[in-house]
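New to this. Please check both lines:
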Amino acid sequence: MSIELRVPQLPESVSDATILSWHKQPGDVVRQDETLVDLETDKVVLEVPAPKDGILKEIRFQDGETVQAEEVLALLDTGSIRSTTSTTESDTSTEDETRVLTPAVRRLVNDSGIDPSTIKGSGKNGRIVKADVEAAIAAKQSPTSAPPSSTSIEQTATPQAGRRIEERVPMTRLRKRIAERLVEAQQTAAILTTFNEVNLQAISDLRKTYRDLFEKRYNVRLGFMSFFIKASIEALKQFPVINATMDGDDILYHGYFDIGIAVSSPRGLVVPILRDADQLSFAAIEQRIKDFGEKAKQSTLSYDDLTGGTFSITNGGVFGSMLSTPILNPPQSAILGMHAIQQRPVVENGEIVARPMMYLALSYDHRIIDGRDAVQFLVTIKQLLEDPSRLLLEI
């Protein structure tokens, strides 16, 4: 009996998807819920699993082709699976179970270039888990590993000498969409950027005092981002136009705070949304950010994770950026840019002292946000961060 494997219903506003990669080929045995193909949309990668055990009979679309919702991707023969495997099923069931990788583990294996057959699994029945792959990667990158011989170095380097090499790589759909949105923002909004700097000594002292206790109680690290999110929310309450968007000739004010957190992923920059962030504790914010980071690395962010948002924060400081002008994330009207923390001399009580300083940048749409509001908004964030007790008192 053959059953059709169809393109699932795509998220709202997504019209089609691209075949990213097939994990099985015609004639391969597949197990129920095993991922057969990855589909790439403008925002997320959708994994299409096998509905039943069977043999992949036919593939209708190849890697790189575009498909619509409900189109038939492949045919799966479920009738012959028992007859073709019954004689060896008892001997190979454990082996098959061991060989099947979860999507997250498979993606990590593919990115690392490590042959999974060389990895010893520590999971149930010898199944390879994420920790096994990470250990294999660490061993591969270890400086104690034997260096390549001079012969191998010469063989690798010699063909490159004097050559001018080029490589053409198609842009991913996500990268195309990022490019479109950035150009759209530049062409449709009147973007200006205002700057300030903040002394993070008080927050650094607070983190140093309570870091271990916080992590022990909540099982998550106390970072700087939760303070910036809390400060941004309080400033947005005082300057609601920063949290607003343009809708035709109207200004749409939002009575909620959905904060976009820019994170990098193997496929490019993504901005998952921290919904109703004003209702979250420091611990809840840090846990959500941690979850976003892990899901971004594994390309498992859902469409809902990336939809909406009223204000965004981006932290170029994690890459060493000292100063930048962040670009708006349409239809939002403002974005806060964080940068690297550096010890710099400042004057306190008539004395020059070293303090951990960070430059802040606020890019905003001047069509609806006046410079005065933008500057005062950024000053408010500075004041809240330099005296974090005001965050608790909401003053």
User: Anything to note?
Assistant: The chain is about 35% helix and 25% strand. The first strand starts at residue 2 and ends at 6. Residues 83-95, 144-157 have pLDDT under 50 and may be disordered.
